[in-house]
Amino acid sequence: MSKIIRVNVGDQTCKIEPVPEKYELLGGRSLTSQIICDEVPPQCNPLESENKVVFAPGFVTGTSAPSSGRMSVGGKSPLTGGIKEANAGTPVSQKLGRMQIKAIIVEGEPKNPGDSWLLHLTADAAEFVPANDLKGKGTYETVAQVRSRFGDKVSYFGIGPSGEFKMASAGIFFSDMEGRPSRFAARGGLGAVLGSKGIKAVVVDDAGAEGVVIKNPELFKVGRKKVADALTSHDLTKPGGVLNSFGTSAVINVMNEVGALPTRNFSSGRFEGAAKISGDAIVEAINARGGGKQGHGCHPGCLIQCSNIYPREDGSEHVAKIEFESAGLLGANLEIDNLDHVAELVRLCNDLGLDTIEVGATIGVIMEAGYISFGDGPAAIKLLEEVRAGSPMGRIVGSGTAVAGQIYGVKRVPVVKKQALAAYDPRVIKGIGLTYGSSPMGADHTAGYTMASEVFGVGGKTDSFDTDGKVELSRAMQVTTGFLDSTGYCLFIAFAISDIASGFEGVMETVNAVLGTEWTTEDSARLGATVLKIEKEFNRRAGLNKEADRLPSFFAQEPLPPHNTVFDMDDKDIDAVLEG
Amino acid sequence: MSKIIRVNVGDQTCKIEPVPEKYELLGGRSLTSQIICDEVPPQCNPLESENKVVFAPGFVTGTSAPSSGRMSVGGKSPLTGGIKEANAGTPVSQKLGRMQIKAIIVEGEPKNPGDSWLLHLTADAAEFVPANDLKGKGTYETVAQVRSRFGDKVSYFGIGPSGEFKMASAGIFFSDMEGRPSRFAARGGLGAVLGSKGIKAVVVDDAGAEGVVIKNPELFKVGRKKVADALTSHDLTKPGGVLNSFGTSAVINVMNEVGALPTRNFSSGRFEGAAKISGDAIVEAINARGGGKQGHGCHPGCLIQCSNIYPREDGSEHVAKIEFESAGLLGANLEIDNLDHVAELVRLCNDLGLDTIEVGATIGVIMEAGYISFGDGPAAIKLLEEVRAGSPMGRIVGSGTAVAGQIYGVKRVPVVKKQALAAYDPRVIKGIGLTYGSSPMGADHTAGYTMASEVFGVGGKTDSFDTDGKVELSRAMQVTTGFLDSTGYCLFIAFAISDIASGFEGVMETVNAVLGTEWTTEDSARLGATVLKIEKEFNRRAGLNKEADRLPSFFAQEPLPPHNTVFDMDDKDIDAVLEG
Lengths: 580, 580
Fold this sequence. Notes:
Two copies of one chain form a homodimer.
Chain A: E1 3-8, E2 13-18, H1 28-39, E3 53-57, E4 70-76, E5 83-89, H2 91-98, E6 101-107, E7 117-121, E8 126-130, H3 139-150, E9 155-158, H4 161-164, E10 172-174, E11 183-185, H5 190-196, E12 199-204, H6 217-233, H7 242-246, H8 250-258, H9 279-289, E13 293-296, E14 307-311, E15 317-319, H10 324-330, H11 339-352, H12 356-368, H13 377-389, H14 392-398, H15 401-408, E16 415-416, E17 419-420, H16 430-438, H17 451-454, H18 470-487, H19 493-499, H20 501-515, H21 521-542, H22 554-557, H23 571-579
Parallel strand pairs in A: 1-6, 7-12
Antiparallel strand pairs in A: 1-2, 3-4, 3-6, 4-5, 7-8, 9-10, 9-12, 10-11, 13-14, 14-15, 16-17
C-alpha cells in the first residue's frame, strides 16, 4: 500500500503513515511543494527545526515508463528564503516508487547536533544507524563506505561536507546506476537543510518491494510505447541524436554562437575558449583517452542517455559527469578553457556536495573582486578545496553568489532571489529572463526552459531577441514543467513531446494508467498552474514579493557583447508571467 | 544664502545649487530621507552609481542651541537594502550649518574606481584633492595626515578601510572637538556607499562662514534658554547627572539588573562580568589611571557631555569613546569582561571605520559557530584585525551579522532587515521589539527608544514585560524621533523635554525661530510621521515588505534567562506601529 515515511530526527522515529486523500493525486514536485506548504511555516529559519526536507518520486517513477526516474526534493531554501524543489534522475527514485513510498518527510531537530546518522530504509522499516565515522567525509568516500557496509544492490543519497557545514550552496547527491554520487538535487541549499537534521546519507534497499500499482495496465502499455516512440524518433533525444552523442555540453557551442554564454562573470556572451570545453571536446577526449563514456543514463530505463563519464589523460575515470551548466559556469564564466580543470572543479563539487552552477557563479564574483584571476583553473581548484576544511574562504565559496557579492562589495552579482543564474544570459534570450525572475524557485533555467523555443525551435521557433510573446512562452513552459516535475519524467522528454503530439498523449496515458484518472491536457496544465500558485503563495508569506522577482539592474544597464543588447523587458512583464 | 552642494564623483564637479522650495522646511533626517526618496531608485544596487550619500545638519545646527550638533547621513543601505539615516554629533555639522549648507549630495560613479580622493569644502568652493596616499589607511592615520595638510581648525569626516572595501558594516566617521575620528554615523553601511564613490574623506573649512540665519532672534533666545534649563535640571542630563558622570555605559548595570543585556550571542540577558565593563568601571579606570576623562562632549555647546576618553594602564589615551552599545555588544554579548579588551575592540572599529554594534553582533555569531571562543578577548581582537587586510575572515567580520550567520549556518542570528539589534533584548523589553521590527531603519534602538519609558520611567513609567500600550509607545517614540532627528538636537534631550514641558516648548521655539515658522507640537508630530511614511514607502518599493518587519523566530521561541520570557507580541502589533 502506498505510504508516507515520516522521519523525526529528534526522537529518531520513523513512522509509516497512510497517504492522505488530498495527496493521492500528487507526486514529485506537486507533492513536495504541497507538503512544504502544509507543514512548514513560511517564515521559519530554513536551518531550524520547523523546516523539513521532503523526498518524492513522480507518478510513474518505478514503472517501465522511459526516462521517468526523477526524484523531487522539497524544503524551504536557505539560499533563496523561499520554497524549493530540486530534482535529479536516479535509481533511488525508482526504488522508492517500487517500494510504494509516496514521500519521505524528514523533520525535527537532532538532540545532539554534532552527530551524524545514516538512515537505512527497507521495504518494511527505517532505522537510524550511527555514522560519526562519516563526519566531514567527501561523497565519494561516503558512498564507498556505504557500499562496503550495505552491498552493491542498494541505492543511496546524502550530503557532502558542505551540507554538514550547512552551506547555502549544498545540494543532495543521489547515486547513479553504478553507485557514483553524481546525480544532484543541487539547487537552493537543500543539502544544508538535510545537514541541519544530522542525516549524512540515506540507504535505500528495495528488496521485496511490491512495485508500482498500475491501475490500468493496458492503457499504460499503450502510453509507454508512445513516449518511447517519440523519444527515439526526435532528433534531440533519439539514440545517436544530439543529446546522446554529445551530451548537454553540445549546448556550449550553440550558446557561444548565439552570444549568450556567460563569460567572465556575465560580462560577455562569447568565450574565446568555448570550443575547448564543448561537447565535441568532451567526446574527443573520451575517444582519444579511452576509459570514459559518452551516452550514459541516470538510471535504468532512460532512453535518452545524455550523460557522460569523463576520463583523465591516462584513461582512468575523472568525473561523471560534465554537463552544460557546469562547463558554462565553471568554464566559460571563469574563462577557464582547460577541460581537465573544469572536470576537476566538477569532481570537487560532487565530492563536497555542492551545486556546480552556484559555485561557478560564486567563483566568478570572487574573481571579479580580484581575489584570484579569471582563467586561472588551478587557483579556482585550490579555492574550491578550501570548502572541505570550512576555512573562512571555503565558507564564502559555499555560501552562494549573493553572499560572495556582499562580502566583496561586487556590483555585478548574477542572481535572482539570491540564486545564481544558469548559463544563459537573458540579455540575448529574453524569455529565460522572465523565467529567472518569475519562477518561485529563483533563477532556474529548468523551471521554464524557454531556450527550447528561443534557441532550439522546439514547439515552434521564436526569436530570442524578440520580447513579444515571451510572457506567454515562459508561462507555458513553467506550467508544463510544474506538471512534468510531478510525473517523474525527465524534463528532456519535453523536446520530443512538444514536437510529437502522440508523445504527450503517451505521457498523459501513462499517468492516467497509474493514477486511475482520466486527466486531459487541460488537467495537466491545471496541476502545473496549481503547483506554481501554492509555491508563489508560500514565497509571499515568506516575504518574497514582486521586488524579489526582479533581475539585477546590470542586466538592464550593461550591454552584453558581442550583440550589445540589454534585458529590456518590463517589470510588468515579469509580473504578468504567473499572474496571467 | 542657504544652498545645496552637489558633488559628482564621475566628472568631479561640485555644483552649488539653491535650495528648492520643497526642501526649505526640511533638515537633518527629514531632508536626507526626502532627497533619497526623490533621487535614488529604490531598487538600485546600493554600491552602484544610482545610489547617493546625502549629508544634512539639522534645523538649528550651527546655532547656539545646546546639544544640537547632529549630522544626518542618508542613502540606500547596503546592509538592509532599504533607506538609511544614521547620525552623529560633531563639529562638522555645526560648521556646515554656519556655512549655510543645507545638504551635501554625493553622487555618480568614479571614472577610476581604484582611486581615492579628498573633498575640500570651503565657504565658496569644493574641490577634489588626490588622496591615493591615504588608500587603505586607518582613520587615525587618515585624520593625522589631513590635519598636517589642512591645519587644526578644519573638521572632517570620512571612511576607514572597511568603507574602501565596501563592507556592509562600514560607517562614516566624523571628527570630534579635538579632531579624533570618534563620532560615527555608524549603522547600515553608509561608509561602503561613500567608499563606492571613491571619497576617502571630506575636509570642512568654515573660515568666513556667515552663520545660521535666525529669522526670529528674540524667540530663539527664549527657546534656547528653556532647552538649556531643562537639560541642566533633569537628573539624567544635568551636569553631574547620570549621563555626565557615568556616560551611557551606566546602562550596563541597569540592563543587567533588568535581565535584558544581550549575553553570549543573545542567549542570556544577564552577564556575570557586567560590573567589570560598566560605566562605574570606566570611571574607576579613569580615576585610577589618570589621562582619561568622563564627561566629554561631541561638539561645542553640548550641555550633556556624556562621552568619555578611556585611558590605557599607563594613563595614555586608549580610545574615545566607550559607549553602552559598544560595551554591550563587544563586551557582554561576547562574554568579554576585560574593559581593556573592549576598549581595544572599539578602537579597532573606529580605526577600521566599522559599526561597533554590527561588529559585536557579528563576532557573537562567529563565536556561536565555534570559530573562536566566547570570552576570548585577544582572539576577538585578532579576528577584528583581519578586516584591515581584507582577508576572507576580515571580509566576513565586516559584512554584517546576517551574512556571518549565513556563512556559518548559525540559527541564532539577531537581526531585523539584516541589521543587528542593539544591546536591549526584546524578550524583556517588549516595546523595543516593536521598534526593531517596524522601524524603516532595521533593528535600531535610536529609532524609537522605548527604554525611556520602559526602563527609565521618562515621560511615565511602563512595565517592560507588559505588552499593553507598547504599540502606541513605539509609535510615539518613532514619530518624536523623526522630528528630533530633523532638528539637529541630540536624541538625549528627549529625556529632559519629555519630563519638562517647557523644554519641549523651547525646542519648538528655537526651530520656529530659525525657520520662521509657527509650528505647534502637532506640526512636529506631522513632520515626524511624514518622515516615517516616506521611508516606509521607499522600503516598500525596494522590496522590503511586512515580512521584512519580523523579528527572528528565536525571540519568540527561546526563553531568555534569567526571566525566561519570550517576545510575545503579534506580527499585527508590529504592523500596527506605523500603520496606526
